[in-house]
């Protein structure tokens, strides 16, 4: 039920009891205050037990607040804007890369060693392999040794 506010190295603690004199006990140091707030300047991020008591009621809390001197506070709108801008830039770069690589495919025909892209030329028939030539008349003796042998 405590309210803790952190800004830079300043920690502000608000006690649930708001009326009367409030006695604060923070890490063994006792202090009286008339308001319900206790301010710790230059907090060193060390854990501490915090107790506030007033009119017979005592509230205790374990404070483990991390603070830093060079921290910047960002609200949800700023974080959302940063993430959205990052995604838009990323998608923009992806689209540019896609379109530039798409155009390169069309220019690949102009490189050395490629065929002209004009009319489709018919391929000449493949050169016959002499190992698989058909048997012609008069050449049967060449293949006579290839007969299957019966056992």
From TrEMBL:
<keyword id="KW-1133">Transmembrane helix</keyword>
<dbReference type="GO" id="GO:0009897">
    <property type="term" value="C:external side of plasma membrane"/>
</dbReference>
<dbReference type="GO" id="GO:0042105">
    <property type="term" value="C:alpha-beta T cell receptor complex"/>
</dbReference>
<keyword id="KW-0675">Receptor</keyword>
<dbReference type="GO" id="GO:0004888">
    <property type="term" value="F:transmembrane signaling receptor activity"/>
</dbReference>
<dbReference type="Pfam" id="PF16681">
    <property type="entry name" value="Ig_5"/>
</dbReference>
<keyword id="KW-1003">Cell membrane</keyword>
<feature type="region of interest" description="Disordered">
    <location>
        <begin position="106"/>
        <end position="138"/>
    </location>
</feature>
<protein>
    <recommendedName>
        <fullName>T-cell surface glycoprotein CD3 epsilon chain</fullName>
    </recommendedName>
</protein>
<keyword id="KW-0812">Transmembrane</keyword>
<dbReference type="InterPro" id="IPR015484">
    <property type="entry name" value="CD3_esu/gsu/dsu"/>
</dbReference>
<dbReference type="GO" id="GO:0045059">
    <property type="term" value="P:positive thymic T cell selection"/>
</dbReference>
<dbReference type="InterPro" id="IPR003110">
    <property type="entry name" value="Phos_immunorcpt_sig_ITAM"/>
</dbReference>
<keyword id="KW-0732">Signal</keyword>
<feature type="transmembrane region" description="Helical">
    <location>
        <begin position="76"/>
        <end position="100"/>
    </location>
</feature>
<keyword id="KW-0472">Membrane</keyword>
<keyword id="KW-0391">Immunity</keyword>
<dbReference type="GO" id="GO:0007166">
    <property type="term" value="P:cell surface receptor signaling pathway"/>
</dbReference>
<keyword id="KW-0393">Immunoglobulin domain</keyword>
<dbReference type="InterPro" id="IPR013783">
    <property type="entry name" value="Ig-like_fold"/>
</dbReference>
């Amino acid at each position: 039920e405590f309210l803790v506010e952190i800004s830079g190295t300043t920690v502000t603690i608000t006690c649930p009891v708001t009326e009367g004199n409030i006695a604060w006990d923070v890490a063994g140091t006792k202090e009286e205050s008339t308001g319900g707030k206790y301010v710790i300047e230059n907090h060193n991020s060390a854990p501490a037990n915090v107790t506030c008591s007033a009119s017979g009621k005592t509230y205790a809390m374990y404070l483990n607040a991390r603070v830093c001197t060079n921290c910047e506070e960002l609200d949800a709108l700023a974080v959302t804007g940063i993430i959205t801008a990052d995604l838009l830039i990323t998608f923009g770069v992806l689209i540019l890369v896609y379109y530039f690589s798409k155009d390169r495919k069309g220019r690949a025909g102009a490189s050395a060693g490629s065929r002209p892209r004009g009319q489709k030329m018919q391929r000449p028939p493949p050169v016959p392999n002499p190992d698989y030539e058909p048997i012609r008349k008069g050449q049967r003796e060449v293949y006579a040794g290839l007969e299957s042998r019966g056992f």
